[in-house]
Write a structure and sequence with these properties.
Elements (H helix, E strand, L loop, with lengths): L2 E4 L9 H10 L4 E7 L11 H8 L5 E7 L4 H9 L4 E4 L7 H10 L3 E6 L17 E5 L15 H14 L4 E5 L4 H9 L4 E4 L1 H4 L6 H8 L1
Parallel strand pairs: 1-8, 2-3, 3-4, 4-5, 5-6, 6-7, 7-8
Helix pairs in contact: 3-4
């Protein structure tokens, strides 16, 4: 069954503790935390402190997505903060392979995120070392964007590559996910749906219903 990874980028920041606890109780599998630095993307969000704070209130897998440039100088901080999965954009740093080794050696799952402008095969040399690949179905930087259907092909490519090479990464998708686009992604082989405004814009009493419907 597909895993649901709600993105707190879409949460009410004044109620973030309540939101995370509600998501925890509503059947979320992961908590997706978008880290933006104003360099790789034109927006600034959280730092390692938010990961550490959320770690203290949930036992769910913390799915940390770094949209930062460079990456390597900050990896240790996110490891120490309690991340369970750390994914980053390989083109944002010259040392992608070394960064993956640092994450893996800390007994944390490593992943990469593929920007809509990038090709899956650009990063094939990294697939054997990682545990997650995020297909971006919006241009990273802001929540609430429209789903880019032309990125579905990347999900199919990743599924084929994984099968042919016996790789063990999960395929995640991030951006514009709702009941219709989520179904489309699942039909094409996605394992994890990162869900933002579609879920978090609802009353928290409905979280369980929406999460179950997505699954």
């Amino acid at each position: 069954m597909v895993k649901i990874s709600p993105s707190i980028l879409s949460a009410d920041l004044l109620k973030i503790e309540e939101e995370v606890i509600s998501l925890d109780k509503s059947g979320a599998d992961y908590i997706h935390i978008d880290i933006m630095d104003g360099h790789y993307v034109p927006n600034i969000t959280f730092g390692p402190n938010i990961v550490k704070s959320i770690k203290s209130i949930t036992t769910k897998t913390l799915d940390v997505h770094l949209m930062i440039e460079p990456v390597e100088p900050y990896i240790k901080e996110f490891i120490d903060a309690g991340s369970d999965i750390i994914s980053f954009h390989p083109e944002a740093d010259n040392n992608a392979s070394q960064i993956i080794d640092i994450i893996n050696n800390a007994s944390i799952k490593s992943g990469i995120a593929i920007h809509p402008d990038k090709n899956v095969l650009d990063f094939e040399h990294l697939f054997k070392k990682i545990q997650q690949v995020i297909v971006m179905t919006v241009v990273p930087g802001f929540g609430g964007q429209r789903f880019m259907e032309n990125q579905i092909q990347k999900i199919k490519e990743l599924k084929d590559i994984r099968k042919e090479n016996n790789y063990n990464f999960e395929i995640s998708v991030d951006g514009g996910i709702n009941n219709e686009t989520g179904k489309l992604c699942i039909e094409n082989g996605v394992d994890v749906l990162a869900v933002g405004s579609y879920l978090l814009s609802q009353d928290d009493q409905n979280y369980n219903k929406i999460i179950n419907a997505l699954k």
